[in-house]
Amino acid sequence: MYLLAALHLIISSSLLLFVVSYNETEQNDIIQLFSDYIRRFNKSYDYGTMEFKKRESIFEQTLRRIDWLNKHRNSSLDALYGINQFSDLTPEEFKKITHLNKFNTTAKKAYPLQKKLFTNQNSVKDLPKKVDWRGKDIITPVNNQESCGACWAFSSVETIEAMYALKTGVLEQWSVQQVIDCAAAPNRGCGGGDTCLTVEWLYEVRNF
């Protein structure tokens, strides 16, 4: 049967996940878990319709993939996979709503990067195996970009927020919308962008 393997929620990137374990089971159990999924994530599929059966099949494939990935974890420090609001989508549908295919990476040539690496050898010794910054007032709450393909802006801003907090001890939440609207080309708002180009642009304008 399908089992909820944990009662707690885990956060991965910007998505809320709940962890499941997959085993071969009767069709009724699959339908029940999918029905619970529909309620949890406010989906609107009518039972017995072709769309319901299609999404149920995709959902089952997702469960198999999650189970395989979690069984191949080497330690408790490895990523733990679970169900989220995208678990009933095909890879092609996911790419479409997140605009993963739209940004042309060759556009990077239009905005050259300053490739400067700074390494302090003393800072990389005796590092802990795991650090959870959530309890250290270093990272801001998880955001949901929904259907806007602006992961480049969210990740850039949130990284700078964390770096600022580490340096000053002050955690502030800054405007992702400003970066989406104003960042220099080839960034294209909800149509895609590049994190490295964005950070360089922020460094140049210094009005963030």
Automatic annotation (TrEMBL):
Residue ranges of every copy of the Cathepsin propeptide inhibitor domain listed in the record: 34-94
UniProt cross-references to Gene3D superfamilies, sorted A to Z: Cysteine proteinases
Source organism, top-level taxon: Eukaryota
Keywords for this protein: Disulfide bond, Hydrolase, Protease, Signal, Thiol protease, Zymogen
GO biological-process terms attached to the record: proteolysis
Signal peptide, first to last residue: 1-21
SMART domains in the cross-refs: Inhibitor_I29
One Pfam entry name: Inhibitor_I29
Single GO molecular function: cysteine-type peptidase activity
Entry's family note: Belongs to the peptidase C1 family.
Protein name (database record): Cathepsin O
Organism: Araneus ventricosus
Gene behind this protein: Ctso_1
